[in-house]
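Aim 2 progress update. The chain analyzed this quarter is reproduced below.
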Amino acid sequence: MSNKGYKEHLLKKQTIPVLYWTIISIVSLILFITPYFKGLFNGGSITFQLPINITLISCMVLLMLVSVFFYKNWKLESLRDIFSLFIWLIPLSYLLSQINAASPFQAKFSFYISISYVVMFLVGAYFSNTNKSLQFINYSILFSGYIIVLFGLLNWFGQVHYQDSVLDLRLSNVFQYANAYAAFLLALIVLTIFNILVSKKLLWRMLHSFMLVPVLLSFLLTLSRAGYILLPILILLCLPLFTLFQQIKLIVNLLMGIVLSISIYNKVWQIGLAMNKKFSLYESLQGWAFIGIACLVGAALILLIQKVYDWYEGKYIIGSEHKMYKNFIIPAILLVLGLFLIWFIFNNSNSDLSRYKFLPDLLIQRINSISSGDSSFSYRLWYYGDAIQVVKDYPFFGAGGNGWSGLYELYQTAPYTSRQVHNFYVQYLVETGLFGTCILLVLLFGVYSFFLINHFKRNENYNYRIPSFIVVTAILVHSMFDFDMSFLYLAMLVFLGLGIMVSESRNMLLKNKLSNILSKFSRANAIILSIAVLILFFNSIKLLRANTMFENAQNELKEQKRFSVIMENLNKAISLEPKQLEYVLLKINLLKSIYSQTRDEKYYIEASNTVSQYLSHEPQNSAMLEQQYSLYIAKSDLQKALQNVINQLEYRPWNISLFERAIVLYNELGNAQMKQGHLHNSFWESALDLYNNTLLMKINEFNNMPAGIRSGTSFVITSQIYFAIGKIEFFNKDFEKATELLRASVSSSSDEKLQSEMYRWYIASLIKAEKPYKELMDSFVLKYPEAKAQIEEIVSTP
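Predicted structure tokens:
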């Protein structure tokens, strides 16, 4: 059957066009609506789960409709059909990762998220096989992107206030994270230029031309260094898909847009900075005026470029044979120039970009910091190294969804805090192990191989599946340096694009015994899929119900309703999802609060049992261990509290607050023994051993780490540690050491009440060490008259 005949045959079989367009319309709505819910960030917190739950239910509805479509249309005839089976191995890998999951609930939640990947892939593969449907999806992505860009600039100029859309003076927009927004804009930049190239109607071409500057300007305002580096790489990867003259137009349009964006950058930045402090309608409109003028100039220049190109094409190009090798001439030249530029930069590390006056100062500083070894880049390498250690302990099926978040403290070799690995592939390896990662890489290799082979075989000027290649490549390449795929919205774009990239494989018919056998069971496969979808759908509803009950409990708590009313909703949420950490934490905190008010033992016992039950399946969960510690403190059971802290320190040796707690508890327990007449006791010895043989070694290890690591965090001895060890040395009659330590405690404390107590001990140690103290004591007693007697009491301690 010819390709044309096959297309006609396929269209005749589409007897349910309403279903066909319903599916595409739902996907379009998802693309337009979901970004405004923090990009559907899967951050492992209850804060992000409700919109994700609703999106998952929408995806289950889509999957039901797809299964109906498959009932009459699916057969194992092409590579597309093979991919539609293979994609299910991704949820399987997440299902298997639950075997040794660090967090059972998060692993299950990630499994449901992976189903949405399958849904988007299937929609892309089976519902973009006509020009109209493909253009509909492409324009949905493009125009939803344009709206996001304009929304971001409204926030930049202070006319709209979306939470954290401008964070640390970087444009983060709906993602609340500038680097994720930069990944999205990378795709949108190339998409915009692609549509400028292919649009036949003047109105559409003007619209895309008009939007180029706002998109590029927004990209610059993210201050994403990885984005700046990856833009030329993305262009280089996309260029071979275009003809030689299309490449020239693409590069000229891009450079023109960049120049116009940079020309107004400083003014737009300054206005945004002012709007961040105080809104002014005049200045805000002034900012829009700068952008509007740049857009008009850009659109006029692009149209002029197109006119010149049309004239040149009509005179010199039409009728000439297109040679595929010409597609690689400009990319090859640019690659050589890029390698030379990299060599030049690394061999001229002292060069200063400030000589280039046409660049805005802020951009110069940001670009210069790329090669300065700053903390963000240093830490990424540290994360990757620690993540590999996690993989060694969870090699085959991984640690489950959000496994890194639950485990990183147990494996970290530096005192950082990061619930994301900042590399999608490494994080995927942690979550799904070698099994899941191999499946993902095979899928990506297969899709890209098919798309590129098919594209170059066609030898056409335009391939309307190129936008999908652009979106997928931009996000996946940027994901090598950040956690873009933790945003479900971006992940759905990727899998939708992957599906579209293989949608043309329907004309590659397979004829073998296996395909014939499986094709006979196509309806049975659709029925099995429908049953599975129903199960997944009701479980998604269960997730949503639990989330709703929890939110009801939170609202009732804010409204200060009765304890029993709040607990009723909370217990319902926990009964639906007993391993959801935040549900359980709220219950424990409520029980502790009511216990502190009533001192009724039943609340303490229930809280303690709840903690123990949760720790039975997540024994190293730091949040729950903290709850256990607070319960021991509430009962003044210092020995059990100390044991809790020592156990935590074994697994979290870079947590300075745990060292502080342990040493303070050792000191308090030692004080109790001292009051019983034991001046030299085991608790004080343990405190000194922990301080001298563990903490100081850790401090030394930290000080020997690269400057990039040390500049991004702090790991220093706290005033409480100095104070506790200083008092122990005082009782041990080593007054020289005591004086040194107590002086350090005074100088490092910012708590006025605690500092006054530290001064009492410090002055007492000066007296005992026979060092000058009178001037300090006189000024201190003048401020605290009662301190003199207290100091004398400390000095008289045996």
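The longest strand covers residues 166-167. DSSP finds 34 helices and two strands in the chain. These observations will guide the mutagenesis experiments scheduled for the next reporting period.
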